[in-house]
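example protein:
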Amino acid sequence: MNTTPPPAHPQVAAGTPAAPAPVAGLTYHRLSHADPKSRWFSPLLEGLLGVAVFIGLNLIISVALAVAIMGSGLSLQDVATNRSVIMEHPALFALTFLSLIAIVPSLFLARLVVGPKPWGLIHSVAGRLRRSLLLPYLGLSFAVYGIYYAVMLALSGESLPEYRYFQPPQVEFWVYVAMMLLLVPVQCYAEELAYRGFMMQMLGRWLRTPWLPIVLPAVLFMLSHAYDPWGQSTILAMGIYAGFLCWYTGGLEASISLHVANNVILMLLSMVAGLDPFASEGVTPLDALQGIALEGVYVVLACLIFNARVRRGEVSRETQPLKVDN
C-alpha cells in the first residue's frame, strides 16, 4: 500500500464557517503548534491537570461503585477477580465504563485551561470531528468485523451457544444492549482522545517525525490491557494502526471507528455467544494473526476511502490556510 497521501486541496464547506487554523501545513500530531499561545511545556501542564481531574472524578465514581457492589450482594474481591460479573449488574456495568469516560471531561477541562485551543484541534486538522469521515468509517468498520465473524461462524459449522447473561425476553437484556450502544462508543472515543489525541499531540509538540508519536502511545495502550502475550500483540497492533490512521487521515475518525466496532461487537457477542468480554487469557497465535490481519484490512480500506476524498478536494491531512474574502 502506498502510504503517501495524494496532494491535499483546501476546502471550505458552503455555509459552514471553517474552524480556525492559524498555521497551515500541520499534520495531526503537530497540531499543538496551531495555537500560537502554546509553549513547549504546555503539554506537561495539560497532562498534569488532566490526570488530576481524572483521579478526582474516579474517586467519586469509586464511591458510587462501592455502594453499587454492596447493594448487589457481591464483594470487592468478586469484582476484582472476575470482571465479567458486571455483565449481570447494570449499575456496575455503567459505572465501570463511566470511570473510563471520565477521560473526556478531564481532557476538555485541561485544554480549556492550558490549551492548545480550540478544543476541536484534538479531533482533527479541521478543528472538529469530521462527520463526513466518521460515518463512512463506522460503516466500514462494522462491515469488516461483521463479515469476519459471520464467515468464521459459518466455517465453524456451529450455532451460537445459549445466551450467557440474560435472555432476550428479559428487560435486563435490552437494558444492557442500550447501555452498550450508548456507553461503549463513548468509552472508545475517550480512550482515543487520551492515547491518540493527547499523547500524539504531546509528543508532536517536541518531535517532527510521526513515528514515535504513533508507536509510544500504542505501547502504553497495550500495557493498559492485562492480556496474555498474544492478546497483547493484537492490542499493540491496534494501537499502531490507530496512530497511523490519525497521522495519515489527519484526525481521530478512523481510529475511533476501528475501536468502536471492535469493542461493541465483542460486547454483543459476549451476550449472545456466551463469551467473557474481559477474558485476559486464551488468545492463540492464530487468533492474534487473524485479528491483526483483520485490522490491517480495515486500515487499507480506510486509507483508500480517504485518498478518494482527498482527490475530490473534500478533506485534507494537513491544516489549510484560512481564506480571506476581499
